[in-house]
Amino acid sequence: MSDTVSLPEGYEISTDAGRIDVDRVHTWLSTDAYWAMGRPREKQERAIAGSLNFGVYDTVSGDQVAYARVITDRATFAWLCDVYVDRSVRGKNLGTALVGAVRDHLEPYGLRRVLLATHDAHGVYEKLGFRALARPDQWMALAF
Q1: What is the mean pLDDT of residues 105-122?
Q2: Parallel, antiparallel, or unpaired for β 77-85 and 64-72?
Q3: What pTM does this model have?
Q4: Which of 57, 93, 98, 100 fits a 20 to 30 Å CA distance from 123?
Q5: Cα(75)–Cα(14) distance, integer angstroms
């Protein structure tokens, strides 16, 4: 595994789903994330309820500033998705630290693989050990 990435001072990560600012996460994803544009609030709530959630919070204000979620069986597989850092705090290494925390949280499960899809953040994920699929010809998807 790659080295652990520290959060900048003044921020903390939590997996407490009760701390997720659902309004904020929904706004971020449905209005500013190319993969979730227009996602209905009810669908976002179901996604949160069925996932392992990670939030990054400002330790002074308590405001949520980043989000990621993982769909996993906690045994063999995980899908990392909906990784988002608020535009006002980008450039502070919060995204890298968040994904590093997700990776470190999942490691004890002994998963065979953690997958994700990205259009524009390959560099962030590569720093943390993610690589392009070695055999993409073996993978298929069912899209509705």
Answers
A1: 95
A2: antiparallel
A3: 0.93
A4: 57
A5: 21
Looking at the DSSP assignment, which residues form a beta bridge with residue 69? 53, 81
Confidence grade of residue 5 (pLDDT, cut at 50, 70, 90): confident
Rounded to whole angstroms, the Cα distance separating 48 from 38 reads 16
User: Is 62 strand, coil or helix?
Assistant: coil
Where b means 16+ CB within 10 Å and e means fewer, 90-122 reads: eebbbbbbbbbbbbeebeeeeeeebebeeeeee
Give the CA count within 13 Å in the CB-facing half-sphere of 96.
Answer: 18
Residue 36 to residue 81: CA distance in whole angstroms: 10
Task: Provide the residue type at 118 as one letter.
Answer: T
Q: Are 48 and 29 in contact (CB under 8 A)?
A: no
Residue 35 phi, psi (nearest 5): -85, -10
